[in-house]
Amino acid sequence: MQGKKQYLDKEVVRFRLSERVPPHNLYRRLAELVDWSFLYDETRGLYSHTGQPSLDPVVFFKLVLVGRLENLISDRRLVEHCALRLDILLFLGYEVDEELPWHSTVSRTRQLFPAAVFERLFDHVFAQCVARGLVAGDTQAVDSAPVKANAALEAVLEKQAAGPAGPHLSGREETPAAGSVVTAPAHQLRQLATGQRRRQGAQTGALGARHEQARLLSNKTHYSPTDPDARISVKPGKARALNYLCSLAVDTAKGVISHAQADLADKRDSLHLPRLLTGLQRRLRANDLPLRALLADAGYANGPNYALLEAAHITAWIPVFGQYKPEIEGFVYDRRTDAFTCPKGQALPFQKYDTNQDGGWHKIYWGPCRTCQQCPRKPTCAPRAKRKQINRTIYDAAYRRAWERQHTRRGQRKRRVRQGTVEPVFGNLLHHYGLRRVNVRGHAGAHKTRLLTAIAFNLKKLLKHRPNRHVSLAVALPRPVLAANRRARRRNRRLEAPTRARAQPLTGKGTP
Predict the structure, then answer these.
(1) Residues 6+ apart with CB under 8 A from 148
(2) What Rg do the C-alpha atoms of the chain give, in angstroms?
(3) Boundaries of each Transposase InsH N-terminal domain copy (predicted)?
(4) Do residues 46 and 92 both lie within one domain?
(5) CA dihedral defined by 470, 475, 479, 482, rounded to 10 degrees?
(6) Do residues 125 and 462 make contact, with C-beta atoms less than 8 angstroms apart?
(7) Is the pLDDT of residue 469 over 70?
(8) Does one domain contain both 294 and 424?
């Protein structure tokens, strides 16, 4: 007989939410895994003792973590999604007939809580990962990736020249907006203008017909009024956009995120390493974990970074940047005398320290001018200068040691370890944890988003962890008894040996 289900939409009198969610459910296990009560003490000073009750801080953090776990960026969609899930309602502590908070309440609460509260929750979850044996701490892999900001590139404005603000029509002085004043050095602006003219001159069509000039944008001359902290950046293979930079440190033991931070996207990765290292060492020391090795790509190659890691007794497995040359062809360096020797045998000793336009320190070596003027190799060695001059960075020794490490078999193995540790973590965060775009504005909001994403990732690691339990059965006999038995048997053999020899008959050819 064919069945047909009838839906009556009746009112259920007896219903308990905890009975509808199985014990193995992710959110039910997550509620039992973490002790959330410490968040009340962390946020108590942010509220007044009078007024209407606010959104429960524990509910807020659970709600935004659900957004990361469910790969939801919008707060509106997050609230709508949670209202349809019984397990999430049980995780949040809401009944089926109870209204969830408004999305605007979630947004205002996120702005109210400082980043220190988010970092405290991250430290709490990281400590649980350490207690479960998921973190070794001695080797960390570092990497960064751009994340799209909540601003449009088409709405950027041109920065104004720095100078005193002129009088306004109302008699008040104008206050420039954040990031709306040019702060780049003059030589960088000249280089930028030269490059723009060269690119615009190359934009020609068929038979030399010029098309409409493309709009050339730079962080030195343009800013976003919507989000002044967002920076214009481009990733190979991607379009130019307003981004933030997400920097991560991942433990190589089980892939647990040990540090997360948001950085400005207009600087090289190497300039963000000191701040990342400070936060990473603080967290590892708090859990009694020593840091001995740091793995990173060539984007973190920097003389100050090599010196900083060596001073902290940390082995830097960072490939040297491609422009660095450990040796100059034809010139031999003597470390004892700190001098170079040219192919003709002339010494080029160290003369002085100097800085470039960007403030980088380097050492200068040169020899006597009269010697170079009489040298037959001068047209090829120093064609435009009076003498041969060699500039080397003051961190040349640290560069050389890093270059030697990367060309060893262990260096190649460390490179593969980094690629198999931190890069898959970034892929998961971008595609499954809502890190493809920042749904807030400002550097502080982007940093909170990075922390929430890292917390959700580590919580998933905790839920998936299954400790290995080895069951073995062994029977152990007392060693002194066995040793005594062996000694007794040996003594009996020695006593019985002469008796056996006397009892044995003699045999031979002459014996009947």
Answers:
(1) 241, 242, 243, 436, 437, 438
(2) 35
(3) 16-111
(4) yes
(5) -150
(6) yes
(7) no
(8) yes
pLDDT in tens, 50-108: 888 899 999 999 999 999 999 999 999 999 999 999 999 999 999 988 999 999 999 99
- Identify whether the C-beta of residue 309 lies closer than 8 Å to the C-beta of residue 294: yes
* Cα–Cα distance, 42 to 35 (Å, whole number): 13
Q: What is the pTM of this model?
A: 0.81
Half-sphere exposure of 234 (CA within 13 A, CB side): 8
**In this predicted model, what pLDDT tens digit does every residue of 474-493 receive, in sequence order?**
555 555 555 566 777 777 77
Q: Are residues 373 and 308 in the same domain?
A: no
Structure-token pair, residue 154: 């088409």
Q: What percent of the chain has pLDDT over 70?
A: 86
**For residue 213, how many C-alpha atoms fall within 13 Å in the half-sphere facing its CB?**
9
Same domain, 106 and 31: yes
Measured between alpha carbons, how far is residue 210 from residues 193, 194, 201, 207, 328 in Å? 20, 19, 9, 9, 45
Q: Residue 67: which of 126, 107, 127 has the closest Cα? A: 107
pLDDT exceeds 80 at position 38: yes
Query: Do 349 and 441 belong together in one domain?
Result: no
Q: Which domain holds residue 254?
A: 136-150+235-322+402-454
> What is the C-alpha to C-alpha distance for residues 123 and 455, in angstroms, rounded to an integer?
9
Q: Which of 402, 410, 411, 413 is nearest to 320 (CA)?
A: 402
Alpha carbon separation from 218 to 215, 239, 244, 447 (Å, rounded): 10, 14, 15, 23
Question: What is d(CA 463, CA 317) in angstroms, rounded to the nearest whole number?
Answer: 32
- Evaluated on CA atoms 38, 44, 49, 52, the torsion sign reads negative
Band (pLDDT 50/70/90 cuts) for residue 169 is very low
Least-confidence region, from 168-177, 270-279, 316-325, 449-458: 168-177
Number of domains in the chain: 3
Inside any domain, residue 123: no
